[in-house]
């Protein structure tokens, strides 16, 4: 217990220290929200990765989908690395950085408002972002608190409040730069921790081959295996279609999440994006791939230890696996998951507070706001947002995946297509954007009420469907003014001077 407490005290001390150190960068709006658009590739890549992967992934998703799909759940982690990290940086990174700077937008709703020249779109997108970021935040608390309960036997409510207060302190002090520096430190802990945990858990099951043999020997009469022998060690697992839905939701979703895309706003320059792409992809392979690979052995856990009232509690599977580890490793795991969760939480609260302040309050309720006043109000809203999410986290749904599915489905379903097409295609119309918003939020809310399918599959459908709905509606609705379109895309017209590598002599040219 002493080792665990010492590690936690060191961790919290470093986080608060970073907040104090970076507070001088958070004196104006650009500094507080985007770090002055001067954040290097390493900090940005780690900020992206740590915001992506939290206790939701490590505790909730890895346990639930590892139990359902076996080792094929590793595909989820690889999808996160290839689609959610590599392709997101390649497709969105440069264009987002260039156009958002050209339009002088600091948030996703602000980008939508300026790109589509619509104040209404800006306001509604800000409301959508605020409302649906809250359930995701609650899921982060839930996952972390289960692990703390296992390691320290601390009440759930104490864990939630302590984490919320500590995160609020360093975000309020240092803004985006404090979260970026802390994310870098937390990311290193996550990389080391996940490798140590995988090795230890496999060793506890007799090594990789022995654990693999145990998993392959599970009876084929388990309903999910559909009579397949060795289904949990097969290439695509027992349920490939639902597995695909999880891959789409957790990978493509990052393309439309405000707290993820905003990382591209803040990166230093285009060269930094190339470096950041490599770092971010490597981080995702190790952390996401490792988490789901570990979860793939979930069926080896004694079911009686994670069953309540005859039902498997998926969020208890990973903590149960970890409870068998030595104390020093449990301490490392607690810091690992705490790192992942606090980095995600800090990103969420900063995104939400900046969206409310800059896109709703400023210009609508308060016409004139100085830089100092804007930063002050954002700090107030950080506290408000954390309080609301804590209240929800005190009585959350049964499984973490439900909360995350609702949040990602609505946000990415509504925002992904308007963002992607807005960066690449001049033909998007305002009604096309509205159709995208209605589709993403509508599918999510309708499924919450009707319960026709899992939140995971509903989220995947809302994202993919939005990519079809927005262009279809745009083709048949009035176009934007050509001058407005040309202004937005002017930022991509910059001429590039390329050094000549081979020069032919004049006599060769004449011949």
Description:
The chain has 511 residues and is mainly alpha-helical. It has helices spanning 2-21, 29-34, 41-52, 55-69, 74-102, 108-115, 119-152, 156-204, 208-216, 240-252, 258-266, 270-295, 317-322, 327-361, 371-393, 400-424, 430-450, 455-475, 482-489, 506-510; strands at residues 307-308, 311-312. Strand 1 and strand 2 (311-312) form a beta hairpin.
Number of strands: 2
What is the 3D shape?
globular
* Main β sheet profile: 2 strands, antiparallel
Number of helices, where a helix is a run of at least 4 consecutive DSSP H or I residues: 20
Widest β-sheet, arrangement of strands: 1-2
CATH fold description: Sodium/glucose cotransporter
CATH architecture: Up-down Bundle
Percentage beta strand = under 5%
Poorly predicted residue ranges: none
End-to-end C-alpha gap: 84 Å
> What portion of residues is helical?
over 70%
Summarize the structure.
With 511 residues, the chain is mainly α.
Task: Provide the descriptors you would attach to this structure in a database record.
about 500 residues, about 0% strand, two-stranded antiparallel sheet, mainly alpha, Sodium/glucose cotransporter
Please render the helix and strand layout as text:
Elements: H1 2-21, H2 29-34, H3 41-52, H4 55-69, H5 74-102, H6 108-115, H7 119-152, H8 156-204, H9 208-216, H10 240-252, H11 258-266, H12 270-295, E1 307-308, E2 311-312, H13 317-322, H14 327-361, H15 371-393, H16 400-424, H17 430-450, H18 455-475, H19 482-489, H20 506-510
Antiparallel strand pairs: 1-2
Helix pairs in contact: 1-8, 1-14, 3-8, 3-11, 3-12, 3-14, 4-7, 4-12, 4-14, 5-10, 5-11, 5-12, 6-7, 7-8, 7-14, 7-15, 7-16, 8-12, 8-14, 8-15, 10-18, 11-14, 14-15, 16-17, 16-18, 17-18
């Amino acid at each position: 217990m002493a080792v665990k407490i010492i590690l936690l005290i060191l961790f919290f001390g470093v986080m608060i220290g970073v907040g104090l150190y970076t507070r001088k960068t958070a004196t104006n709006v650009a500094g507080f929200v985007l770090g002055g658009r001067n954040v290097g590739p390493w900090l940005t890549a780690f900020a992206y990765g740590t915001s992506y992967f939290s206790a939701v992934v490590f505790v909730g998703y890895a346990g639930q989908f590892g139990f359902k799909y076996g080792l094929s759940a590793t595909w989820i982690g690889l999808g996160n690395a290839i689609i959610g990290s590599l392709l997101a940086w390649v497709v969105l990174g440069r264009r987002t950085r260039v156009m958002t700077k050209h339009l002088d937008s600091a948030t996703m709703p602000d980008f939508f408002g300026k790109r589509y020249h619509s104040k209404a779109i800006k306001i509604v997108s800000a409301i959508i972002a605020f409302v649906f970021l809250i359930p995701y935040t609650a899921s982060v608390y839930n996952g972390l608190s289960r692990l703390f309960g296992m390691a320290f036997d601390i009440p759930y409510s104490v864990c939630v409040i302590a984490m919320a207060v500590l995160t609020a302190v360093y975000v309020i002090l240092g803004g985006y730069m404090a979260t970026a520096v802390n994310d870098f430190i937390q990311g290193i802990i996550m990389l080391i921790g996940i490798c140590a945990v995988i090795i230890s858990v496999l060793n506890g099951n007799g090594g990789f081959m022995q654990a693999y043999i145990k998993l392959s020997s599970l009876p084929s009469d388990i309903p999910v295996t559909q009579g397949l022998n060795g289904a949990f060690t097969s290439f695509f697992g027992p349920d490939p279609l639902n597995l695909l839905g999880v891959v789409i939701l957790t990978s493509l979703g990052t393309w439309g999440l405000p707290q993820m895309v905003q990382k591209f706003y803040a990166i230093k320059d285009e060269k930094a994006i190339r470096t950041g792409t490599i770092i971010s992809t490597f981080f995702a392979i190790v952390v996401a791939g490792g988490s789901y690979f570990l979860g793939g052995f979930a069926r080896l856990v004694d079911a009686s230890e994670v069953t309540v009232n005859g039902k498997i509690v998926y969020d208890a599977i990973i903590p149960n696996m970890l409870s068998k580890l030595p104390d020093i490793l449990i301490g490392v795991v607690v810091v690992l998951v705490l790192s992942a969760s606090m980095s995600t939480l800090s990103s969420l609260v900063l995104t939400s507070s900046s969206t409310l302040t800059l896109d709703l309050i400023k210009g609508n309720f308060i016409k004139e706001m100085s830089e100092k006043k804007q930063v002050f109000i954002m700090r107030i809203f950080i506290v408000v947002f954390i309080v609301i999410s804590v209240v929800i986290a005190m009585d959350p749904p049964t499984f973490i995946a439900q909360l995350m599915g609702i949040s990602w489905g609505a946000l990415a379903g509504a925002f992904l297509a308007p963002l992607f097409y807005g960066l690449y295609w001049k033909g998007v119309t305002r009604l096309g954007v509205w159709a995208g918003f209605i589709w993403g939020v509508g599918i999510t809310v309708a499924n919450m009420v009707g319960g026709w399918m899992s939140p995971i599959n509903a989220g995947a459908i809302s994202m993919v469907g939005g990519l079809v709905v927005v262009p279809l509606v745009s083709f048949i609705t009035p176009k934007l003014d050509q001058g407005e379109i040309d202004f937005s895309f002017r930022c991509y017209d910059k001429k590039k001077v390329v050094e000549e590598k081979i020069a032919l002599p004049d006599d060769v040219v004449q011949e």
